[in-house]
Structure formats: C-alpha cells, structure tokens
Amino acid sequence: MKDCTPAWIEGIRIVVRTILTTGTPYCADSMHCTDSSYYEVFTTSMRRTGWSISIHRKVHRVNISTMTGVSVSRRQHKRLLLLAVLGTTTMGLATGCQSLRPRSLFSDPAPLHAAPRIAETPPQTERGDQKATEGDVSAPATPGDTPGDTPAQADVVNPVGYTDEVDPIDAATSPSDTLTSFTDLISQNENLQTIGSGNTSGSYPSSSIEPSGGITLDVIESIALSNNPTIAELVATTQKAAGFKTQVGLRANPTVGYNANQLADANTDQHTVYISQTIITADKLALNRNVLNEALRAQLFQLEAQKYRVATDIRTTFYAALAAQRRVSLISDFQSVADKGLELAELRKKGQEGSQLDVVQAEVQKNEIDLLLQQAEIQFQAAWREMAALAGNPGMQPEPLIGELPAAASDLDWQDVAATMVTSSPEYQAARARVTQARANVSRQEIQKIPNLNVNLGAGSDRATGEGLINFSIGAPIPVFNKNQGNISAALAEYIRACREVERVENSIRARLAEVSNDYGSSRVAVERYSHLILPNAAESLELAEIAYKAGETSFVQVLVARRTYFDTNLRFVAAQRLLAQSRARVDGYVLTGALNAVIDGSGSASLRGQTLSQQ
C-alpha cells in the first residue's frame, strides 16, 4: 500500500512530536514571538513532503514554513495542530491510495543538540585608544549555561564558553584535562527531571538511577550544580557586572530647553529654543568599558571556580557516605560471624569443650560489633544530610549510593601537577583578571583630567528688532586644581595590591596541593599494601585460627584475636580507600573547597560614568 498522507499533515506531525518530546511550547507565528535573540537547536527538511521545520530553544520558538515560500495562516496552524494531535491520516483519496498505518506522534523523535559557543578575543591594549567592545564578554543567562572545553590559546585565558550576542574576549580555554575529571559534568547541567521521594526544593535527572534503586555521584553533582545557592549568587553577580559594563559606556543625554529674556520690558522680550550636549573626550567611555569588562571576566572565572568548589565538596562527602555505607555492609557481615562464634562458644561450653570465659569474650566482641554498626549507620546518615545540604536540596531522603571506592591509583608527579594546576586554575585566572582590571583603571584615571566639551546651540527671535537669534557657546573646565591626582594614586596602589594577590593565590594553591599530596600518597600506598598483602594475610590467619580451634589445637582467644584483626584490617582498608578517593577529588577540583562559603561580589559599580560626566 502506498502512504499518501498529505505533506502538510506529515509536516505538522513532526512539529507536534518534537514539541511533546522536548517540552518546547508552540509559537504559531514567528512575528509574534517577542524575543528576537535565540539559539537555533534543531533544523530538519523533509524532501518527500516539501516542508522545512526549525525549532529554537531559549525563547521556545517553533517556525514552520514551506520550501516553496507558501505561508500558512495562524488559524490554519491551529487546525493542523489539532489534526496532528488526533492522529488523523488520509485514507482512500481519489487515487485509491490508503495510508499504510497510523503514525504515532512519538515515533522516531528527532534528536536535539546544541553545541556550546566559545568566545574569542583580540589582544588587550595598555591604553584606551582601542574600543572596549573588542574585548567584551557577557554573563551567562542562567545557572545552567556552562562551558565546554577548548584548548588554551594564549597566556591570558578567559572563562569557558560564556558568550551572548556581543563581541568576544581574548582566548577561551578550559582547565587542564589531566586534572579535571568532571569538567564535562559541569558543562552539562540541563534537562533535569524529578526523581526520588525526598525531592522538595529542586529537580534532578532520573536517567542515571539504576533499576535496582540508588543514586550515583553524577546525579548528585547535577543536583548540586543546579540547586546550590552560591552558583546562583555568582550568576547574579555576573549579570550585575554585565549591567555595569553597559552603563559606564553610555554617552551623555542631550538637553533641550526654552529660554526667555526681558519679559518685563514690553515688546523687547527674546525667546530662544536651545539644545546642549556634553562631548566626552579622550575615549573615556571606551576605557570605562575596558575596566568593567575585566571585572565581568573575573566574575566569570569566580563562577567557574565556585562550580569546582561545589563539585569537590559533593565528591568528598559522597565518598565519605559511600565509605560509611561500605562499613555498614562489612560490619553486618562481621556481625553474622560474631553471632556464629557466640553460638559455637556456647555449644562448646555445653559439650564441656569450652569455658564460660570463651562465651563472655564472644559476647564482648559481638557487642562491640553491634556498636560499630550503629555508629556506621549514624555516619552514613550524617554524610547524606551534609551532601544534601551542599547540593542545595536538604529535603532529599537517604538512598543507597551507587559507586565504587578506588582499589588502586597511579603515582603523580606533584611538580608537574602544581605547575599545571596553578596556570589553569580558575581561581588563579580570576586573580589575574583583577590585575588586568586594575591596570585598565590606571589608564582610565590618567586621562580623566582631559576636559570634556560642553556645546550649546540655540535659535529664537527678538521682538524688539523683529529679527531672528542664533546663539552658540562651547566651554570646558580647566584642570587647574583637580587633576585627578588622588584617584591616579589610588589606582596605582590597587594595581600593586592586585599583583600581590596573584602571588598569594599561587602560593595558596601550592600549599593546599602539598597537603593533599600527603593524603593522596599515604592513602595510595596504604590501599596497595592492604589489597595485595595485609588483607590476604589477615584472611589466611583467620582461616587457620578457626581450623586450629575446631581441631582443639589453639584457644578461643586466638580465634577472637584473628577475627578482630581481620575485622579491623577491612575497616582500615575502607578508610584508606575513602581518603584516596577524597584526595583525588580535591586534585581534580583544583584544591577548591567551600561549596557554601559566602560569595564575594566583585561585580564593581557604575561610578566611572559619574566620574566621566563630572570633572569639577
């Protein structure tokens, strides 16, 4: 049978199917979509039907047009949409054709993909003779707009992937691939769905949940990057910085007025309409934009650094909770062994092969294990609550964690790690952006003393003479007393402070990395020793002790000692695994921690514009 579904029905089906599968609202006429800025995400053409379909996210726009240029009215759109939803198919046309089968709106959904847009910039200038718009950056629109990875292109790097419809900046780079094992996670923070019974304040993806139940590290990181309040705060500060950057570059408004003279003298009055304008000289507005552009760039680096802080803290608490969960599992196994040991001691006492001392010692060991089990459960609950608070969703109910603690790790060259970490750390790049901002402000303050021009032009009439009047004046303040020397001195001091701040940040990174390297190295060696030597020996010792005890060749005390040794060895192995995983997480996160620390607002202000317009 030949499929004779009309082209317009086939086209509208694909649109509706895409809307229902992606959640994109329908806009019947692109002229009525209010926001002109959008990202084109999906475009497809159906050669058989002759229809072209474009779906644009951000403003949730769906445009429908024919390849032949035939327009479709809004009323027709609504009718076609209704027909498509009802699953209408054309049956038995004049040619006798019949539809093969009803087409489901949800069959073969078209994939959506939007590649991140990476900003590029020209070199920076020392003075203000280059327009500030050449180095402009823009703030992310939402907390979910996060960067992708691009190779480093210059010594001075910029925050990754943050751009809008404005000119880009210097070079876009991502942190070193050798250190950032979860960079891709940070750049994929969208399409969140609700899972879990305890979700009360946020949404998070359900695709990573295993069928058996539980939650993975990737899911919790996605929750945190979406709901942590500090990230939203820094997004707001970047928006502030972008607004200030726009404001300081605006020109002065003209003044229009009316002037009347000699009104008391009959027939001698003069009437004039005038316009005045302040002409800003020395490219001060461009220099203003340069200063605020660097403030925005620094805030974007701070935003990226905060995402690493959140991800690092989430990882360390996740591994703490995972280790506690593992401890609960191990102690539960040991508990059953202790119960069997107590039963065996009682049986041997009844058979007059053992003593009451053996029973009491077995009871002591069992009670100790019961206590450790309760403590491990408390530790898991506490780690879960901490992790939920860091994720910005404290209402999450505890679930089993899906993950593995590391069984081995490679040795690292800490000199190379330190060198790479310092140069690529967003914390360090933010400090360097502040140096560039301070240097730009020095250049801006040095030209403040160049006066602006005040121009006035008027036209009117003189009733005494019956003639017309034209007045023109131009003036400028003379920098005799105020040459902006105080602000220049302050700007130079701020530049020196910013340079020293870069040194402090670098030394702080190296010091924190040295501390982490100690934890990483010691735990790595411990994990290797436990897994290859200590645990096998402890297991063999326990097995031999139990065999000897059953054969009457050793005392029950030796069995208890062997059990306790094996028990403690396994718990210490889990502790070493936890420390190794947490140390690696801190290295991957540029040794940045403090997911809920107070956010420092460095967005600046629009005071430079007021300074530009007032030179007295």
Automatic annotation (TrEMBL):
InterPro entries: MdtP/NodT-like (IPR010131), OMP_efflux (IPR003423)
Pfam families: OEP
Top-level division of the source organism's lineage: Bacteria
One GO MF term: efflux transmembrane transporter activity
Region (Disordered), start-end ranges: 105-156
Annotated Low complexity bias: 139-152
Family membership: Belongs to the outer membrane factor (OMF) (TC 1.B.17) family.
Protein known as: Cobalt-zinc-cadmium resistance protein CzcC
Protein species of origin: Allorhodopirellula solitaria
